[in-house]
Amino acid sequence: MGGYVYFFAQNRAEGSAKKRNLLGGKGANLAEMANLGVRIPPGFTISTEVCRYYTAKHEYPDDLEEQIKENLKKVEQATNRRFGSRQRPLLVSVRSGARISMPGMMDTVLNLGLNDASAEGLIQETNNLRFTYDAYRRLIQMFGSVVLGIPGEKFEELIEKKKEAKGVQNDIELTGEDLKELTDEFKELTEKEKGIEFPQDSSEQLRMAIDAVFASWNNKRAISYRKINKIPEHWGTAVNVQTMVFGNMGDSSGTGVGFTRDPATGEKELYGEYLINAQGEDVVAGIRTPQPFSTLKEKMPAIYAELVDITEKLERHYRDVQDFEFTIEKGILFMLQTRTGKRTAQAAIKIASDMVEDGLIDKKEALMRIDPAQLEQLLHRRIDPQAKLEVLASGLPASPGAATGVVAFTADRAVELVEQGKKVILVRTETSPEDIHGMAVAEGILTARGGRTSHAAVVARGMGKCCVAGCGAIKVNEKEKEFKVDGFMFKEGDFISLDGNTGRVIKGKISTLKPQLSAEFAELMKWADEIKTLGVRANADTPGDARLAREMGAEGVGLCRTEHMFFGEERLPYVQQMILAENKEERKKALEKLEPMQKDDFKGILKEMEGLPVIIRLLDPPLHEFLPNYEDLLVEVIELRMEKTDQKQLREKESLLEKIVALREINPMLGHRGCRLGITFPEVYNMQTRAVFEAVAELTAEKRSVEPEIMIPLVINEKELAILRKETVRIAEEVMKEKKVRFEYKIGTMIELPRAALCADKIAQQADFFSYGTNDLTQTTFGFSRDDAEAKFIPIYLEDKILTDNPFEILDQDGVGQLIEIGTQRGRKSNKNLEVGICGEHGGEPSSVKFCHRIGLDYVSCSPYRIPIARLAAAQAKLEEDMVQEEARGR
Amino acid sequence: MGGYVYFFAQNRAEGSAKKRNLLGGKGANLAEMANLGVRIPPGFTISTEVCRYYTAKHEYPDDLEEQIKENLKKVEQATNRRFGSRQRPLLVSVRSGARISMPGMMDTVLNLGLNDASAEGLIQETNNLRFTYDAYRRLIQMFGSVVLGIPGEKFEELIEKKKEAKGVQNDIELTGEDLKELTDEFKELTEKEKGIEFPQDSSEQLRMAIDAVFASWNNKRAISYRKINKIPEHWGTAVNVQTMVFGNMGDSSGTGVGFTRDPATGEKELYGEYLINAQGEDVVAGIRTPQPFSTLKEKMPAIYAELVDITEKLERHYRDVQDFEFTIEKGILFMLQTRTGKRTAQAAIKIASDMVEDGLIDKKEALMRIDPAQLEQLLHRRIDPQAKLEVLASGLPASPGAATGVVAFTADRAVELVEQGKKVILVRTETSPEDIHGMAVAEGILTARGGRTSHAAVVARGMGKCCVAGCGAIKVNEKEKEFKVDGFMFKEGDFISLDGNTGRVIKGKISTLKPQLSAEFAELMKWADEIKTLGVRANADTPGDARLAREMGAEGVGLCRTEHMFFGEERLPYVQQMILAENKEERKKALEKLEPMQKDDFKGILKEMEGLPVIIRLLDPPLHEFLPNYEDLLVEVIELRMEKTDQKQLREKESLLEKIVALREINPMLGHRGCRLGITFPEVYNMQTRAVFEAVAELTAEKRSVEPEIMIPLVINEKELAILRKETVRIAEEVMKEKKVRFEYKIGTMIELPRAALCADKIAQQADFFSYGTNDLTQTTFGFSRDDAEAKFIPIYLEDKILTDNPFEILDQDGVGQLIEIGTQRGRKSNKNLEVGICGEHGGEPSSVKFCHRIGLDYVSCSPYRIPIARLAAAQAKLEEDMVQEEARGR
Lengths: 891, 891
Hints:
homodimer
């Protein structure tokens, strides 16, 4: 065999950027730069194949040593230096370099090639005792700790002692002589600790360093980093052996790092920092403050011009922003590294947009460049990244955004405090429908119990408010108006802050940043819309949501949850009346009160969405969700019983309790809800349907174009749908007759139970459209109650890799996705005009959106703030599909 | 068109038994009897086609009248009588006759053809004034009520008046003259009520009667009967017009009904009753007591011999027990009807067995003759069918059987009462694990709350005890030790009885009958085993269950639920200790106490099942099921808090409450249970696995042949199974080493979530066997929580025909069945040796068992008492398959 080692030097590299898997990111980019004619310190890369070989067999390939020797010779020729020689000694570094950068996780050894003899030579050559011994003592220090495993602090102790002895504060104040002494002391330490001399044979140094760097692929740090970042173990690392260049050889030397554009804003200007007379680690150490490039332009105009030239070339070549490192050794510029620069979402958009303008990339490539998930950053209030935070605890990131305010423990108190002009965070053990008015005025909501589908979470997302839910670490005492967390006690009026993106609960006030959408953002979204074929609709429950959704680019409402309207403060009493009604008459009376309110809601939403379809889902959750909390009431009743004072109140509460008990269920998720309610209590659905159609009729009479679609939730078979469809049609006809207008409408169903997907052929005969309710479909397909699962075992499943992703965040394509495919195929087979989409939170998650495109759905529907994410993901899905097809044609 | 009317007379019938759909059951059997040479009163059948025609078009086919006329002429010729004539008048009856008998649901008119003239003729012919006017007044009475719609009680009133006027008690005491007067009064009544004369034109009478009988297909009674019995409306009824014969023409006349064999016991002897000088309705009216056939043999030996002859012929012809009616008119025997006789399960078996012995049918036919579901009757204690019952209320039939005893309201009290020698019915609002010792001693269990998967139901079924659950009509006051129902109050010690087969709660003591299995039963089961290819295993949790299962013919244990062992009185404290453990150490300590107990359980079961496979499922339910009831504890804590006396107890209870709160789940069905527990708390599964393997090792050392199979519940993917498989193998190896024996075992999984079925190809690579948990699979596929659904909406769904059957009783082949097929195909594709079965209650339900056979499963597993049902159903499934294949070959 052969070909384990790849040489590189300016204009002469054996590798290239395409060989990234073999050479690692660093090695591949060095080769690529070299071939572009960029000046880099010559060297060679030992491929990842060797790492795999070594991991498997615990030895190296036979001819590896020979190949290294040959390549070292080429480096010597290229640099006109000799490794380990007194005369013009060649110094090299040995660094790891995996396919994907794993910063700081693996080991590095610098200055290899120094020994007592070559040090002497270097002093002569550089005429710089201090420089030489600084380099030498660094080599022994790094070699000692990395290769030989001597604890680093033992070397540090010696340095400290030396500084004390010399009466100086900083390393920099140590003289060449001091460092020479230190070098000897380091050698002694090495011998004392490991019983061997620091090797004077440079080849031995190199061999041992390469060994150590390969071995560092399997150190603890690296393994756990790979686990977190899902990097496969079998990738292995490459090892780069490269000529040392020194930025610390006086004032014509220096070192720096930069970006070809501003990685925070995307502005098109060289951006970076440098230090004169310094090595790379000095920039990192932070003792001296690096200077901006503007001063480099003044101080070293030629170097700066060369740098601009090279980096522009690199950007043009790679067609993307570059993150680069360089060193200036005695007036000569060496590039050390270049790679694609990480950037904020804002910068990503600006850069992509500018590059399209400059003709560097086309619109398609621009769209592919943006990570859709990253857009979330732009769409919500967020914590100022500059802010220093004191994190108290973490809960579930239940609704994104950031909020800061004073604590209130009851909804009423929240309202009072807001009336006093304060910003409020509502803190509850868990919220219930009675807290709605408090939630409505609060900046954010924090609960101790409940998952991401808890009342607090669902309502907060609906309101677009930041919410951290299920934060078990906080102990709320609502009676005493205080909560404890992490040893702190918070009272009403104390400031706290929430990070709804991460679930963090933060002490005190923090500053938050408003979302700002740039012109480039709008442009990019326009391009996405031009390309994508998948529709994007919004989940919107109020006219406000609908307006926002339209601003975000929604092409309709894919899910309007009518029950969210039931939680309104002025409505809940009637909803409760309706539920607790003893007979049909009483129920009807309460419903008559609700109908005009619902009609107004629907009018508002339909008006906002004029010209676009609006899917309105009839009541879905079990009725007891609208009633007072059972346990609280139970406690009250017992207390009243024991107090024996207020018999009348006791009897009332007992009677209420009895009704709530009758409505309670063991597994409410799988209970009396959805169309099951519609069938057993037809009055409720009839009221809702009537409210929709009256709204439609009135708007139609106003010559507004509205497209209502009535959606029946939770069906198991076609018969349920047939019954409810008939009722819906009857009411539509009634309303048209009464209001003397004609209007069009559709009737469809949620597919959110496995049985519905499996029997979709029959169901489709009764449906104009299907909408997959992926939340419930995930719950039933997995047998996971989201609230329970996310609190109790999904985190463990993710850690143990039993699950790759949380299926409530990222659609489970293997299981749930299969049902969606089956349902869609069968449904369309029996009803060619069937419109098919998904609603549920997956509709705004990029990989899930792409899946929906691939299996040919008509649209996805997601919360308003996720619409841009879905639009971009949909465009990318189309582009990826085109690429696959082109490739297939090419073959 | 033609052929609406089918003539029949002895040896000359146009129809046959094969034309049942066209002629109805009655008409087809009359034709068949006629063609067999049996003497029947001549007549004709108007086909069901006419009923359909009439229902659709509200008129009769054009030539129907003509066909009726022709056939009436044939009847006249056959009887040598003339319809409506004074001379030898022909009297006919008009009766309905649907494909399936709908006794008493539709109308009948007798004695048509009588008018003033023919009555005179009949008097002359019979020399019997009383007979004639009795017949005539009956005609007017039936015609008036059935055809004309005059309320029947108006005729009855006139009869009562007449009796009063004549000073007699019974109709029979009225003389011929009295009846003649009554006939005139009836005519007047008819005219007064309907403004028309009773028609003297016999053809008019016939036309109107036929009309009325066809119309009665759509009377309320008939419609609701069809609904209950699932008879399609489009079947329609036929109408039979038949010569009247009279059993009330003196002592050489009579009428009777009988069975060719005893329908209760199956004994092979003519069985029936008759009355001399009486009409059929007299037998029904119950004024005179009918005589057994034994006296007929004495009194009319020739007639009896002829009857024996005819009925034997009929039985031989139909090859099944016949239920027949006959009339003797002046010494001449006429058969009026024959049909397959209904019989008890016991009789069905005896008859089938005897007929095989007699060579009348073969074993296969015998097997097909028995309704598997009917076997349930034989296998449990049941209420004496003779007993008069005062039913108080109905609950869910949660566990079959019958029980009688005194009421106890607590488990402790139940134990005390049993110790006093009493039989006890435990009555609770709902049961919890703490009631187990009371349930164990009780005869039966009655609960006010909870469905058929409630604690009470599951435990009772496991114990083979009668249970009525969720009987909402009873209001239990456990503190006062009383319950109210239907206006009655029951105290401790009062007698009640339960019918676990129907859910009835009965006042007082009743006598119950023991199950008795005959030799014929055993024989039949042997035949079933010879034919069936599907295995039948048992769900058995204890050695006692296993023994019973083996007696019932189980070929192994398909499901041993280890958690049921956890509920034992001496175990529960350790189980609770394990759950409430603060750390691994504490948990291990509790588990160490449990391990030897579990080992003994397993040894017991494995020993009972020596030579047969035993599938042991590891812990499945959520842990909080083993803890005290949350609400009870909450109430206790609040009471203690308010009393402020016992602070120590309060603190203890509070701490327990806190732990229970932490374990509570919103939807426990979809929560932290099954293998999710096994993965997050490996100690529990490890204890159980070790207990199994130690049991196996010890039995193997005793040279016993045992076949353990470890089953992992509730998997969603192959990774869970891989992890737990590895652990299981590790422990097996450990135990083999420790105990110095080798043994074989299998590791498999329950498939009870849609995802598992959909991803069965991957899961099968880690599994030796699959067992479909159809209860949970039904719950998740439908999104039905069984407890909630059966209480709240399944009854409505069944009534509205949204569901044909309760999917928890009869496997939903369309939805759940699809998943089972998919899972089985995919599983076997990737693992050719995969063994596949179902457990869950469907395993003992005949149609579900047949489905399992059809899709090629290896076995079903059900509760011990249902094993015979499953064996028979499996045999029938095989026979049905063979028939289909034969037919296919024939074509």
